[in-house]
Amino acid sequence: MMRALIIIDMQMDMQHRLDRGQDSVNPDAGDKIAALARHFRAQRLPVIHIRHREDHPASDFHPDAAGFPPMPCALAADGEAVFVKTTSSSFTSTGLETHLRENGLSDLTVVGAVAGFCINSTVRHGADLGFRMTVPTDAVLGFSLPHANQSAQVIFDVTMAHLGADFAALTDTAALLDR
C-alpha cells in the first residue's frame, strides 16, 4: 500500500481570498501543506497536484486569471503529476484514478482547498472508489458562504465530521510528519 500526497486547488485565488480577509479556517494551511510536501518528497513518495480550471473568461480560475496559478506551497517539483480539473471531484474530469492505480497508490493524504467543496467531493469519491483517504484537517483551507449566512468554521466542522464519519481518517500535520 503506497502513500501519496494530493494537493487540491491551492491556487492564487485562495491567497486572494485570505488577503481580502474573507472569513476562513486554517489561513496557515499553506505552511502545513508545504511541510507535508517536503516530508513526502524526502521519503520519495509521490506528490500529486490538482488545479481547478474554468473556461469563462471572468472566472478567477480561468487560465489567464490572476487566481489560476498555484500558490507557492503548491508548486510542482520536476516530474510530479499535475492534473487540471473542471469539476468539484478531482476524480471526475481528470485521469487521476488511472494514474493512482497504474502507480499502485492506494493510501491518499488529501490537503488543500476548499473544505466544503473540492476536498469534500474528492475525499468522498476516492473512498467510494476504494482508496484509503486521510485528511490532516489543519492542512485544509475553509471559507464562509456569506450568501448562505454560514461561517467558515460551521462549514468546516460539519464537512470534517461527515468525512470522518465514513470516508476518511482525520488527523493533523504533526502526526503525519512523525510517520
TrEMBL record:
Keyword Hydrolase attributed: yes
InterPro entries cross-referenced by the UniProt entry: Isochorismatase-like_dom, Isochorismatase-like_hydrls, Isochorismatase-like_sf
Residues spanning the signal sequence: none
UniProt GO MF annotations: hydrolase activity
Alphabetical UniProt keywords: Hydrolase
Domain Isochorismatase-like: from-to ranges: 4-153
One Pfam family linked to the record: Isochorismatase
Name of the protein this chain belongs to: Putative isochorismatase family protein
Originating gene: yrdC
